[in-house]
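Moderator note: this is an archived Q&A kept for reference. The question asked for a predicted structure of one protein chain; the sequence and the answer are reproduced below.
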Amino acid sequence: MSLWKETLFSFWLAICQFLGLNTYTYTSEIFRIDEIKDHLIPSILHSPSLYKNPSSLALEDRSTYTCEGDADFKSKINALRPPENGITCNTPGTRQTWCNITSDNVQDGNPKINNICFDYETPVYTGEQIGLPNGVDRIKKITVEITYGDIWPDGYRKENAMLVNGKYPGELIEAYWGQNIEFTVINKLGVNPGEIRNGTAIHPHGLKLWGNPQNDGVPGITQCPIPPGSSYTYTWDIHQYGTTWYHSHLSLQYPNGIVGPMILHGPKSGNYDIDIGAILLTDWYHENPFSLYSEALKRAQVADSTLINGKGKFDCSSVTEKGRCREGSYWETAFESGKWHLLRFVNTATSETFRVSIDNHNMTIITADFTSVRPSKPVKFIDIAIGQRYEILVYGTYSAGDFWLRSEPLNCSKGGKQIKKENVARGIIRYNRSSGEDPTSKTHLRSADLPKNCQDVEMENIVPVLSRDNHYVEFEEVYNASRKLQVSLVIPKNEARAARLELGKQMPLRNNTSSEPLLDSGERLWQIYGIPMRLDWSNPALDMLNEDSKPTDFPESYTVIEARPDGGDSMNNVVFHISGNAAPGTPGGTMHPIHIHGHDFIILAQGSGKFDEENTSRTLFNPVRRDVATMPPDGYLIISFPVDNNGMWLLHCHLAWHASQGLALMILERTEDFQGLTSTQTQKLRGENCQRWKVYVSTSPTPNPMDDSGI
């Protein structure tokens, strides 16, 4: 493209972004497609001729704006090729491409095309391997150490945080689509006999791990905890691409520091020039979360501050202890004028949903969790619930200046109190790296334009590029066959300790050495399947499995439900209808970010209030697909996923306090295929780890009680 065209193009595009225009149309008379494919976002992927408004189309016509149905769109994507030398798998102008399928799998003598229209699930079923850049090994080995340490992320000294390789957030895991990760965890939390919270385990959030539940990293379900002084190696096949995080799934360890980002490189639905990297958002507690748990049983716990990529500023004026608090700092990054930037947001919080915006900049969503979506219309903000991830594109509109990146906590857990504004972290976007001043920019968000309730990003802004044909189903048939799951609080009926739940099931005991019921007066738990979850770390559910396993074979407090294909759905799907929020007579509800391991799911319906089958709109064609979705306060969430992954998979609220209080269940899936899970080398390693764990726990006559769900 000539210089004057490039300049005109960038200037015109900046105006469109500033005005919030959501449709860009180009014709061959203005720019030829081969000239502008380096700007594929506003041309191909926003062109109304390629992406029609689905609401205006009849059902039989609605396949014409996805990879499957739009031959024009797909041919343009297929015309893009990764660099011939194979050193990289895409470039700023070909982000929709990736390395071709390996030469062992060819089609008509040519390598198979591999791009954003290629179903990432296909290799799982065909045995094909995704191609890798030159010089990249198929197996990537990573080792991390889990230790205690004092840190000052917001300026306030937190003692005995749990760290990954001495850092918070932990070490970045970076891999390529198609690689296999061998992830070794060395537990150096200290040999403190009987302190069972010093065991640990690591869960790769959002990875499907087809047929590999042994490596899901959930103590009490897939393994025993890794005891101090020991190590354990996970194997993760990278069938997906995008941005996620890893974290401990042992009780409240991740709020205490055991988290880290994961970037899995692969194709994108929109082009970009600069990858800013992962941006982790969290709320931060100065006190050890384990110490706060007893209070969390009575009331929502409010964090002391928030952080962006482990940085923030806490107001030290109220701190009297000498040497306890010092000035913190804000995370910052640089933009380049005229360039597109990829930002990868991850909410790793304990209890907060965040509203993210960048002053005077619009954002284009290209990924929701691990699902590539067609680039959205420009949006001014994104609400990100716990566990959710969004990859967004931001254009460098300015030639100079500093701008606030805002991450506002929304208090969706309805705790009453809120984090003080002066302790809410911000990030800084600089167009001049040498600038050291705080921005003076003002937010462009107007309160009148903001949603009044906590909710997910609008579905129209996260439409999958690649649809799933198997979800063309009659909603009424599926809904009538769905599993009804009721979320509610468990509260003692009287002032004395409650011995039984209202549903007639036995109340879990207070700990593994006591015969006392779990709840005192004023305390509460959450449940989703008739009883709060409560696991035994020394007896993982996976060890109880066989091809004849049934939910009744497990302890009642393990809350096991079997996933079998629902009637009316010929494509082997199961549907969960999750609703409710609080026990009868209790005030208003809270939002629950629901996460499923081993799957992503489609969202058939989602909203506040009671689901009305007659009057509620449902998304049947190419619905949103992700692995975390919110059930609104006192609302409902109806999701569906294929029964195609044998194992034991956890479904839980990702608000950490609620998970610890029992808002979870286990999904027992494809029992006929369980034999393959019990004859592997991994099973041997799991058994050896459990033996070490049991020896460790037995070293003290008075072990620290396990007093929460375990997850």
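Archived answer notes: Helices lie at 3-19, 33-36, 71-79, 122-126, 289-296, 475-480, 656-660, 681-697.
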